[in-house]
Amino acid sequence: MSCQAxxxxxxxxxxxxxxxxxxxxxxxxxxxxxxDTPGAIDAGVPEFIDLLAADLLEAEEKQQFKDGIAQMDAxxxxxxxxxxxxxxxxxxxxxxxxxxxxxxxxxxxxKNEFFENLKNTAVWAFCTSEKGATxxxxxxxxxxxxxxxxxxxxxxxxxxxx
Amino acid sequence: MNLNLKAKAENTYDAIVIGxxxxxxxxxxxxxxxxxxxxxxxxxxxxxxxxxxxxxxxNPWDLPNRGRVPKEELEKHYPKQSRTGYTVKAESKHxxxxxxxxxxxxxxxxxxxxxxxxxxxxxxxGRHSYRWSDLDFEANAKDGYGVDWPIRYxxxxxxxxxxxxxxxxxxxxxxxxxxPDGNFLPPMELNCVEQKxxxxxxxxxxxxxxxxxxxxxxxxxxxxxxxxxxNMCIRGCPFGAYFSSQSTTLPAANATGNLTLxxxxxxxxxxxxxxxxxxxxxxxxxxxxxxxxxxxxxVIFCCASAIASTSILMNSAKxxxxxxxxxxxGELGHNVMDHHFRCGANAExxxxxxxxxxxxxxxxFYIMRFRNVDKASERKEYLRGFGYQGQASRGNxxxxxxxxxxxxxxxxxxxxxxxxxxxMTAFAETLPYHExxxxxxxxxxxxxxxxxxxxxxxxxxxxxxMRKDMMNDSAEMLEASGFKNINTYDAQSWxxxxxxxxxxxxxxxxxxxxxxxxxxxxxxxxxxxVTDGACMTSASCVNPSLTYMAxxxxxxxxxxxxxxxxxx
Lengths: 162, 568
Known about the structure:
Oligomer: heterodimer
Structural class of chain B: alpha/beta
Shape of chain B: globular
Number of helices of chain A: 6
CATH architecture of one domain in chain B: 3-Layer(bba) Sandwich
Radius of gyration of chain B: 24 Å
Mean pLDDT of chain B: 97
Distance between the termini of chain A: 28 Å
Low-confidence stretches of chain B: 1-9
């Protein structure tokens, strides 16, 4: 689990600063942690989002990521007196749960658009990554046939990646 | 343009086929198998079966940006081709032309979706394959729009049977006159929610929901493998399990030893002998060598797609016919039709949460036309009718985003398949209007110095009036099935977006009002046959490609018999 103050990234960001990349990586690790199946970091989600920002995202979306990461740090400072990467796993979780409630809960008047986009992008990136698709979900390039309307357990018991 | 006016016809064939898509490939197969030395001219690059399907075996994570194409690239190269929303993706964009290299103009919005390569749009087509009925062939005669078709169902029935046998169409027999049953392979299955829709629509409303009849092989057929349920057809099928020129017609043509396939060859003119009143060959620009070359043949099949075939005719024999070969009726380039769609309803489905599937079925359901099919179903508000395409499916992991939860909860939510939903859009008939037309712009030329196309086409009142029923009737069927949260929509439709453009060189009974006769021969040049979408006299509401195949096979058979009788 890479949630400590000295959390390192093993790749060179193309779009984010080193510090932003560390914050983003820490947030993704809390959002989709490694469990008995791989998590966002194992699946390369942080690098993928960095590449996506470099190659594909519009200026506005890029800025939203940068601003959102800065806000996450500011919120962490205000709440816990330290940057997001320096906060404990429990504190990081508390902050993101707060964002999640404000964004996907019943009252969305304080919704966090950065978090909405982050969760959306992270889930997509994870579920279409090799590890996410084949280990957390199930995936077959060539299913070879069509089995239809059977109990979920009879066709693998979990969601097909595509 | 490097015009070599001395270009000599060194190359003479029995037949020339312009275009290698669904119609051109079929013409090539038929003509070659009947013993004609046949030259197929394709304006785009060569595409070899399987080996040139460069994305066919890519996993989602293998595709750049997981398949999303950057906005700058879309804006620069694909501003019009990307209007479909589903074609210009990393897995399929190489099958679509770059708009900046292949421009056209629009008086009103017209979405002209093209692929310039061997196989044409047979590689990316939607594969839905339906027979027309006499409801369609008699429509113009009954309500007075356009001109009467010169043929009826009985004239084409056996050719449908033949074309289905070659292409391999799966389907369920329903015994309904408005959508005749075909020579089907065993049907792919409706899923349980679709079966519920079928049962309810039939028992409560008398409407027929059937499996989408598509050119996907439900079983191995004619040496081609059965469908592997990848639903990645748009990339090209490494199993040859759907009908394309590459999987089916071009190999058959090639096997005869009579085929010469020449990619990178833009036909821009059909050569016309004004004394003999027939075509002698075609003039081509080789896009690689830039040479201008003449090829000669006894018979020419123009199968370049509706708009391209019409452009070639408009650019031919101008010294004899100022508006081009086939223009004496004044109808060449007119009566542009397409289907209008993107209008229907969707709903959520409860009660099947324990049911799932394996495999990605490459078709959905089809609901056959039920409006204006007989006296009882007549509508005062509009003429003709519509069918529906749709499907029921379970959501994937996407629902997990909107559900509260992060960490292990979020991961657990991803593993639960999403809720069942069902959605459909109508595909509806457009009337033939003389004023809906394409013309050539001889001032704004393309990179080859050839005229560009200007579209002036719109849907009119009859189409607009139909859309209310298209929405409400679909909601009615969803309601009859007990589905929840029914939502109707009209997402607007523009001509061309159905990618069923047709009608610009229509068949008819009278040379004064049509471009082609009942055998698809140009009235003004009987050894020129036009068998792609240009020939269509009306549009029906069903997908047209199977009818192009049948008409092409029928015309090729006739052409060869006329050649034997020395009539061409």
